[in-house]
Amino acid sequence: MTRTTMLDPGRRLVVSLDGTTDLSRADIGDKAWNINRMRALGLPVPPAVVATTAYCRSYHAAGGRLPDPLWRGIVDQMWFLEAETGRSFGSPLKPLLVAVRSGAARSMPGMLDTVLDVGINSAIEAALAAETQDPTFPADTHHRFSEAYRHIVLGMTDAEVPSDPWQQLRGAVEAVLASWNSPRAQAYRRHRGIPDGGGTAVIVQAMVFGNLDDRSGTGVLFTRNPMTGEGPSFGEWIARGQGEDVVSGRADPQPLVALRERLPEVHTQLMDMAVRLERDRGDIQDIEFTVESGRLWLLQSRTARRSPRAALRAAVAMVDEGILEPGTALERVTAEHARALLGPVLDRSCLAGAAPVATGHPVCEGVATGVVVLDPDEAERRAGAGEDVVLARSSTSPDDLPGFIAARAVLTEHGGATSHAAVVSRELSRVCVVGCGEGAVTSLAGRQVTVDGGSGEVWLGEMPLLSVEEEIDPDLVRLIDWARSRAPLAVRCHAPAVSIDELAVLRLVGLKGRVAPEMAAHSLGADRDRLDVVFLELVERGLCTHSGSGLRLTPDGHRRLSTLLAEERMNSNQAVAGRLYREFCGFNSELKQIITDWQLRDHATPTDHTDAAYDQAVLDRLRHLHEAVKPLLDRLGDLAPRLRRYAPRFGEARARLAEGDHTFIASISKDSFHTLWFELHEDLLSITGGSRECEVAAGRAL
């Protein structure tokens, strides 16, 4: 049963992960939640305890320090690790060493590196040497710990590492808590739109040792290839290594076949557990494991970062295998994935006779061109000035995250497909090639290169590209078919009870003439990723086409829109439509006069907007008109559900005007008052069966 430390009434701030805790990912972080779930499944996981995200918030509320009551919460929970392992932390008698890990609710590159082997000192090194009859293992462990602690916790390579195990543990815990507000963590949250208030959990987990002997090692397994999505598994392994050796990229690992040849029974166990975890989670899993003297331990399992192609292939394959329903598969493939799959590729016909200047492991597909820079700060600075850059590193660490975000592509000389660079690049959908070899990419500093993340090749200069928009992947076609069968072009909006269907999308494109996806999503109140899937299908059906920076209707699209508008008119209550239209006409002249007065002060001379009093008077008239029109806008949904969007769109224009952005009066490129009024007028005309000619004759020209 979970033992809990109660530091504040009603709040559980430190808990043991024994498979029974009912706390959520938001409470204990994704990593701890997964550890607890693996324990619940009976899988071999080293025992662990977690300080919750509320613990982190308490730390920061205390001014970024760890008060004794908070610290005692972790001290009190160490009993669980000692009871599970039969070892004692801080004692030379069967000493216990621990790993200290960060773990936010959402896996977040940029947090603190894991601190391994916490609790070792000279006396405990000697005790472990006596216990194992091998002085090499504890000496290697002590050396690894000291170097990592100086770099990760103390931030100084020549700093003195405390010898007291409890002081080491407290320092590591505080470093994890402080890293929530580190520049690299903040940069990632800004990039992904993650709120700052969540906090990170802190996991303290008993160590198992992949560097113990010749039947030990560490590795990473993906239940499917994260580059292609193909099964059954893909991974890498380092004999006599510890957990960070593979993901850091500092060492070049071997494929998992090396584990099968060295320890076949362990390999079989690992494959069986991987299948079990994938079916339990219903998604590709990224599993970190350690083998200690022939015994398999799973350190963590999480949803794998995968390339766009892998996301698509795996989603479709899992439907065929009975793991997923088609609706869930649709949610797994974002519009960003679709755009990447349909993006340009290198024109190979122009490469005849040329040779790449570097070649490595392709880990995130796409093609990108930029100038090679070696420093992540330089990459961030130059990208901020509008320059396309490619970040090249010997190997990467979490400190490089801002450079990853800024760069068009990432290159490394060391590391494999499960390295930090590979995982983070897939998370960011950043073109990436790793393991190019010593000096292969850092020697390209200052030169323009083109990186092909699909082939793993790097070419000098800007290479020509080919469009593949019409060569739709067969898996993507199946996904689109599922979307059409579930709800033909139906996409739920942010606002409850409002749906975005074929008519709403086509009507918006038709009214605006040409519309960018970002603008369409804003106007329709739709999720951009889901709306992009709708646009993709409209293009495939020949109803829309790409034109410049937006989409426009094709002749077939215009005909389809006319049919849908006629159906809408036939199904509308014409008595309600007539009343709403007459009410609208009562405001029409006033709105047009306000717009005219804003643009032409004396009806002949454009105003220069230097008379603040005049401008404010016009703005006040527009504000009063909006208040008067709001009851009409609120009733539009009674006529046709898609018209409900006008009320929030007008409200947004009014809010932007109040903030001082006067382009929302009449700009044709935005949802301004004038643009929205024009669109609403057209919609009311359509539903009532009116025409532009009738409007002109009645003096209500659009």
From TrEMBL:
Domain of life: Bacteria
Keywords from the UniProt entry: Kinase, Pyruvate, Transferase
Pfam families recorded: PEP-utilizers, PPDK_N
Domain PEP-utilising enzyme mobile, chain residue ranges per copy: 387-456
GO molecular function: ATP binding; kinase activity; pyruvate, phosphate dikinase activity
Residue ranges of every copy of the Pyruvate phosphate dikinase AMP/ATP-binding domain listed in the record: 74-259
Transferase is among the record's keywords: yes
PANTHER family (UniProt xref): PHOSPHOENOLPYRUVATE DIKINASE-RELATED (PTHR22931), PYRUVATE, PHOSPHATE DIKINASE 1, CHLOROPLASTIC (PTHR22931:SF9)
Protein name per Swiss-Prot or TrEMBL: Pyruvate, phosphate dikinase
Organism field: Kibdelosporangium aridum
